[in-house]
Write a structure and sequence with these properties.
Shape: elongated
Strand content: under 5%
Order of helices and strands: HH
Helix content: 40-55%
Radius of gyration: 38 Å
Length: 95
């Protein structure tokens, strides 16, 4: 992944010793613990999302496509009634 050879690893080791000195084991332990916690949380997160596509074992044994259909609700909107035709021009009642 990083293609680090032995020379680069020794170089990083020397720099780490110069920076942390006697606290290097404690720093490495803390980094390892943080990495372990991160992996644990990521695994829990992945398990949570992987469970979404699996059916719930507590649900009915019938597949969803065999489940009974919900009751159909009839519409209650009024029917469209077209307006009456306009009166003919010769039949107008004007006084």
């Amino acid at each position: 992944m990083f293609n680090l050879g032995p020379t680069e690893l020794i170089f990083f080791g020397v720099i780490a010793l110069m920076l942390f000195g006697r606290k290097l084991p404690e720093v490495a332990r803390n980094l390892g613990g943080s990495y372990r916690e991160l992996r644990k949380h990521l695994t829990d997160f992945q398990r949570e999302f992987q469970g979404w596509d699996r059916p719930d074992p507590r649900a009915s044994s019938k597949p969803a496509w065999q489940a009974p259909e919900p009751e159909k609700i009839e519409t209650t909107a009024p029917k469209f009634v077209p307006p009456p035709p306009p009166p003919a021009e010769g039949n107008s009642v004007e006084e």
